[in-house]
Amino acid sequence: MASSLSTEEKIKAAAKQVFISKGFSGCTSRELAKASGMNVALVNYYFRSKNKLFQLIFQTVMEEFFESMVSVFSSDLPLKEKLKFLIEREYAFLSKHPEIPRFIINELSRKDTDLIELTHVLPVIYNTGVIEQAIEAQKKGEMRRVDMVGITLLVISNCQYPFMAKPLIKNLHNLSDEQYQQHLELHKGMVSEMIIGYLFPPVPKQNKK
Asked: Could you give the CA distance from residue 107 to residue 53 in angstroms, rounded to a whole number?
Protein backbone atom coordinates (compact mmCIF):
# COMPACT_ATOMS: atom_id res chain seq x y z
CA MET A 1 0.00 0.00 0.00
CA ALA A 2 2.83 2.39 0.89
CA SER A 3 4.42 1.76 -2.51
CA SER A 4 1.14 2.59 -4.30
CA LEU A 5 0.76 5.84 -2.38
CA SER A 6 4.36 6.77 -3.11
CA THR A 7 3.82 6.21 -6.82
CA GLU A 8 0.60 8.24 -6.81
CA GLU A 9 2.19 11.16 -5.01
CA LYS A 10 5.18 11.07 -7.35
CA ILE A 11 2.89 11.34 -10.38
CA LYS A 12 0.93 14.20 -8.80
CA ALA A 13 4.08 16.15 -7.90
CA ALA A 14 5.50 15.81 -11.40
CA ALA A 15 2.17 16.61 -13.06
CA LYS A 16 1.78 19.75 -10.94
CA GLN A 17 5.08 21.12 -12.20
CA VAL A 18 4.29 20.30 -15.82
CA PHE A 19 0.75 21.71 -15.75
CA ILE A 20 1.87 24.94 -14.05
CA SER A 21 4.71 25.35 -16.53
CA LYS A 22 2.87 24.42 -19.75
CA GLY A 23 -0.83 24.49 -18.94
CA PHE A 24 -3.38 21.82 -19.71
CA SER A 25 -3.28 22.32 -23.47
CA GLY A 26 0.50 22.66 -23.65
CA CYS A 27 1.42 19.15 -22.54
CA THR A 28 0.53 15.57 -23.40
CA SER A 29 -0.16 12.53 -21.27
CA ARG A 30 3.17 11.17 -22.45
CA GLU A 31 4.99 14.24 -21.11
CA LEU A 32 3.24 13.91 -17.77
CA ALA A 33 4.22 10.26 -17.54
CA LYS A 34 7.81 10.97 -18.55
CA ALA A 35 8.15 13.74 -15.96
CA SER A 36 7.10 11.34 -13.22
CA GLY A 37 9.30 8.51 -14.50
CA MET A 38 6.25 6.37 -15.25
CA ASN A 39 4.50 5.18 -18.38
CA VAL A 40 1.15 6.46 -19.67
CA ALA A 41 -0.67 3.25 -18.74
CA LEU A 42 0.41 3.57 -15.10
CA VAL A 43 -0.61 7.25 -14.94
CA ASN A 44 -4.01 6.37 -16.37
CA TYR A 45 -4.30 3.49 -13.89
CA TYR A 46 -4.09 5.94 -10.99
CA PHE A 47 -5.88 8.94 -12.48
CA ARG A 48 -7.92 7.53 -15.41
CA SER A 49 -7.09 10.38 -17.81
CA LYS A 50 -5.18 13.61 -18.31
CA ASN A 51 -8.42 15.51 -17.63
CA LYS A 52 -8.96 13.82 -14.28
CA LEU A 53 -5.35 14.39 -13.26
CA PHE A 54 -5.58 18.05 -14.22
CA GLN A 55 -8.78 18.48 -12.20
CA LEU A 56 -7.02 17.11 -9.15
CA ILE A 57 -3.93 19.29 -9.63
CA PHE A 58 -5.97 22.43 -10.29
CA GLN A 59 -8.01 21.82 -7.14
CA THR A 60 -4.82 21.35 -5.13
CA VAL A 61 -3.32 24.58 -6.50
CA MET A 62 -6.50 26.53 -5.78
CA GLU A 63 -6.61 25.23 -2.22
CA GLU A 64 -2.98 26.27 -1.70
CA PHE A 65 -3.70 29.65 -3.30
CA PHE A 66 -6.69 30.39 -1.06
CA GLU A 67 -5.30 28.81 2.11
CA SER A 68 -3.90 32.08 3.45
CA MET A 69 -7.08 33.96 2.61
CA VAL A 70 -9.32 31.46 4.37
CA SER A 71 -6.98 31.29 7.37
CA VAL A 72 -6.89 35.07 7.77
CA PHE A 73 -10.61 35.59 7.15
CA SER A 74 -11.50 32.88 9.69
CA SER A 75 -9.44 34.51 12.44
CA ASP A 76 -10.81 36.68 15.25
CA LEU A 77 -8.89 39.76 14.08
CA PRO A 78 -10.68 43.06 13.39
CA LEU A 79 -11.45 43.53 9.68
CA LYS A 80 -8.78 46.17 9.13
CA GLU A 81 -6.14 43.91 10.66
CA LYS A 82 -7.35 40.99 8.54
CA LEU A 83 -6.74 42.97 5.37
CA LYS A 84 -3.27 44.02 6.50
CA PHE A 85 -2.39 40.45 7.43
CA LEU A 86 -3.86 39.15 4.16
CA ILE A 87 -1.63 41.45 2.10
CA GLU A 88 1.41 40.27 4.07
CA ARG A 89 0.48 36.63 3.50
CA GLU A 90 -0.25 37.19 -0.19
CA TYR A 91 3.18 38.71 -0.81
CA ALA A 92 4.89 35.95 1.18
CA PHE A 93 3.08 33.20 -0.77
CA LEU A 94 3.58 34.80 -4.18
CA SER A 95 7.27 35.40 -3.50
CA LYS A 96 7.61 31.62 -3.25
CA HIS A 97 5.08 30.76 -5.98
CA PRO A 98 4.99 33.67 -8.47
CA GLU A 99 3.84 31.39 -11.28
CA ILE A 100 0.55 30.44 -9.61
CA PRO A 101 -1.64 33.48 -10.52
CA ARG A 102 -0.70 33.26 -14.21
CA PHE A 103 -1.41 29.53 -14.25
CA ILE A 104 -4.86 29.99 -12.68
CA ILE A 105 -5.84 32.87 -14.97
CA ASN A 106 -4.59 31.11 -18.11
CA GLU A 107 -6.51 27.95 -17.30
CA LEU A 108 -9.71 29.81 -16.43
CA SER A 109 -9.39 31.66 -19.76
CA ARG A 110 -9.48 28.46 -21.82
CA LYS A 111 -12.57 27.78 -23.93
CA ASP A 112 -13.08 24.38 -22.29
CA THR A 113 -13.23 25.72 -18.75
CA ASP A 114 -15.91 23.16 -17.99
CA LEU A 115 -12.93 20.98 -17.07
CA ILE A 116 -12.35 23.25 -14.09
CA GLU A 117 -14.41 23.09 -10.92
CA LEU A 118 -14.37 26.01 -8.49
CA THR A 119 -17.45 25.08 -6.50
CA HIS A 120 -15.37 23.57 -3.70
CA VAL A 121 -13.42 26.82 -3.14
CA LEU A 122 -15.96 29.64 -3.06
CA PRO A 123 -18.21 28.34 -0.25
CA VAL A 124 -15.18 28.01 2.03
CA ILE A 125 -14.35 31.70 1.60
CA TYR A 126 -17.96 32.86 1.97
CA ASN A 127 -18.39 30.80 5.15
CA THR A 128 -15.58 32.58 7.00
CA GLY A 129 -17.92 35.38 8.07
CA VAL A 130 -15.75 38.09 6.52
CA ILE A 131 -18.55 39.32 4.25
CA GLU A 132 -20.89 39.82 7.20
CA GLN A 133 -18.06 41.55 9.03
CA ALA A 134 -17.56 43.95 6.11
CA ILE A 135 -21.28 44.69 5.84
CA GLU A 136 -21.44 45.46 9.55
CA ALA A 137 -18.40 47.75 9.34
CA GLN A 138 -19.98 49.61 6.43
CA LYS A 139 -23.26 50.04 8.29
CA LYS A 140 -21.37 51.58 11.22
CA GLY A 141 -19.55 53.95 8.88
CA GLU A 142 -16.16 52.44 9.73
CA MET A 143 -15.58 51.15 6.20
CA ARG A 144 -16.22 52.68 2.80
CA ARG A 145 -19.19 51.11 1.01
CA VAL A 146 -17.42 48.85 -1.50
CA ASP A 147 -18.86 45.49 -2.47
CA MET A 148 -16.86 42.25 -2.39
CA VAL A 149 -16.13 42.44 -6.11
CA GLY A 150 -14.52 45.84 -5.66
CA ILE A 151 -12.51 44.68 -2.64
CA THR A 152 -11.39 41.57 -4.51
CA LEU A 153 -10.22 43.70 -7.45
CA LEU A 154 -8.31 46.00 -5.11
CA VAL A 155 -6.46 43.12 -3.47
CA ILE A 156 -5.80 41.02 -6.58
CA SER A 157 -4.65 43.89 -8.80
CA ASN A 158 -2.27 45.24 -6.18
CA CYS A 159 -0.98 41.95 -4.77
CA GLN A 160 -0.86 39.56 -7.71
CA TYR A 161 -0.17 41.75 -10.72
CA PRO A 162 3.27 42.91 -9.50
CA PHE A 163 4.42 39.28 -9.63
CA MET A 164 2.81 38.64 -13.01
CA ALA A 165 4.35 41.82 -14.41
CA LYS A 166 7.87 41.00 -13.23
CA PRO A 167 9.38 40.31 -16.70
CA LEU A 168 7.94 43.57 -18.06
CA ILE A 169 8.99 45.81 -15.16
CA LYS A 170 12.45 44.23 -14.95
CA ASN A 171 13.11 44.94 -18.61
CA LEU A 172 11.65 48.43 -18.54
CA HIS A 173 13.88 49.47 -15.64
CA ASN A 174 16.82 47.10 -16.21
CA LEU A 175 16.47 45.48 -12.79
CA SER A 176 18.01 42.30 -11.43
CA ASP A 177 15.91 39.73 -9.59
CA GLU A 178 17.31 40.97 -6.30
CA GLN A 179 16.53 44.59 -7.12
CA TYR A 180 13.00 43.70 -8.19
CA GLN A 181 12.42 41.82 -4.94
CA GLN A 182 13.52 44.90 -3.02
CA HIS A 183 10.99 47.00 -4.93
CA LEU A 184 8.30 44.43 -4.17
CA GLU A 185 8.98 44.81 -0.46
CA LEU A 186 8.57 48.56 -0.74
CA HIS A 187 5.47 48.14 -2.89
CA LYS A 188 3.91 45.82 -0.33
CA GLY A 189 4.01 48.58 2.27
CA MET A 190 2.52 51.10 -0.16
CA VAL A 191 -0.24 48.67 -1.16
CA SER A 192 -1.19 48.01 2.45
CA GLU A 193 -1.26 51.71 3.29
CA MET A 194 -3.23 52.55 0.13
CA ILE A 195 -5.90 49.84 0.43
CA ILE A 196 -6.42 50.26 4.17
CA GLY A 197 -6.47 54.04 3.81
CA TYR A 198 -9.07 53.86 1.06
CA LEU A 199 -11.37 51.29 2.65
CA PHE A 200 -11.13 52.74 6.16
CA PRO A 201 -11.00 56.53 5.71
CA PRO A 202 -10.59 58.58 8.87
CA VAL A 203 -13.88 59.74 10.36
CA PRO A 204 -14.10 63.54 10.04
CA LYS A 205 -14.17 65.35 13.34
CA GLN A 206 -17.35 67.24 14.03
CA ASN A 207 -16.93 70.92 14.80
CA LYS A 208 -18.14 71.88 18.21
CA LYS A 209 -20.42 74.87 18.34
From this structure: 14
Shared-domain flag, residues 100 and 195: yes
- Place 85 in a pLDDT band, splitting at 50, 70 and 90: very high
Residue 29 maps to a domain: yes
Measuring CA to CA, which residue among 189, 191, 201, 72 is closest to residue 137? 201
CATH of the domain at 40: 1.10.10.60
Cα–Cα distance for residue pair 17/29, rounded to 1 Å: 14
Residues 99 and 6 in one domain: no
Q: Do both 120 and 44 map to the same domain?
A: no
Domain span at 30: 1-48
Taking only the tens place, the pLDDT of each residue in 87-98 is 999 999 999 999
Render pLDDT for 150-160 as a digit per residue (tens, 0 to 9): 999 999 999 99
Task: Quote the CA–CA distance of 39 and 56 in Å, as a whole number.
Answer: 19
CA distance 107 to 115: 9
Do you know the residue count of the chain?
209
- Cα separations (Å) of 32 from 111, 156, 201, 203? 22, 31, 51, 56
Instruction: Determine the Cα–Cα distance for residues 191 and 184; give it in Å rounded to an integer.
Output: 10
